[in-house]
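# step 3/5: fold
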Amino acid sequence: MVLFDRYGGAAGALCNALSGDDFAGRLGERLTAHFGRATLPLCSTDAALHTALRLCGVASGDYVLVPSYTYYSYIRSALNIGAVPVFIDSDPINRCTSVSALETALVWCRVQEKMPRVAIIDNAFGAVADYDTLLPLLASFGVPAIEIACDALGGSYKGTPCGANCELGVVGLNKRIPGSGAALVCGDDLGRAEEFSRLRYSDGENYDYGMSNYIAALNLELFDSLEATVSRAQKNYAALAESFECVLPPTAGDAAAYAPIKTDVEEQDGFTIKKIQPTHKLPLFSGAHFFEHEQGFCAADKLAEYALVGMDFSFFKRLKLSRLLKREG
C-alpha cells in the first residue's frame, strides 16, 4: 500500500491534479507574473521551440541564424522544419552570440538577397547575452529573435527575466526546477501559439503540445524552489572560482547553471560535467555557413577547451535521502 499526504508538497500537488483543476492554466498565470509577458506552458523544449519558429513564419528553405556553442537539439528543431541553419560564433567574454559575427552574417545574408527569417539567441548554459547590442542590430535588418533561456531560468538581463528579452522566448523548466519537466513559450500575443499547440481549436497546422495537468501541478508546486536553486548554483560557482584559477567569470545576470573550467575530470559527486563540441563542427553541418567572432579566431573553439560544471540534482536528492536514513537509523 502507498499512502500520499495530499498536502505534502510535490506528492500533494500530484494528488490534487486528479481533482480536474486546470493546473496548466494556473501555472501559466504564475509564469506570466514572473516574466511580465504572456506565457504558454508546453510539453517540452523542442515543442516550445518548434512553436516559436512557426510563429516567426519559418518554413522549409529559410535561413535561421543559430548559435554554435549550444545544445544540438535546438538546431535539430530548425532542421525538422527544413530550415537552413547559419551558425554564429560566440562572444569570448559573455559566451553567448557574438555581435561582430552576427553583423557579418546579416550583411552576408543581405548580399545573398535572402534575409534570415529569425535569429536564435541562447543564454548559453546559464550565461546571459548582450541584448542591448544584439536586439537593435537585428531590428536594423528587420530580423526578429527567439531567446532560449533553459539553463538561464532565474537569471535576468538588466531587470528583465531571461526568456522575456526578445520577441519570443523559449524556456525549459526541467533544467532549473529539479524533478519537473516541460517548457514554455513567452511573448506578447500567443493566440496563434495556442492554436498551433492544440490548446485552442484550429483547422490549420497544429500539434498536441499541451503540458500535462500532472506535470503542470508539479511545476507549480516546485516553482517556489527556483530562487533557492539559483542561489545555491551561484554559491557553487563562487566556490569553484576559488578552487580553480581557470574558471571563466560569470556574466552579468548569470543564473550560474554551469561554470566553465579547464579540467580533465570527467565525473565528480555533486556536479555534472559536460564537454561541448561546437555544433557547426558536427559532420551533419560540414557544409553549413559559419561566421567567426573575428577573422581567423573562433571563440567557440576556445570555449570548447573548458568543461561545463554544474549542480547534479540527483546527487542532492541522494544526499538528502542518505541523511534521512542515517537520522532514522
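# step 4/5: annotate
The mean pLDDT is 87.
# step 5/5: archive (pending)
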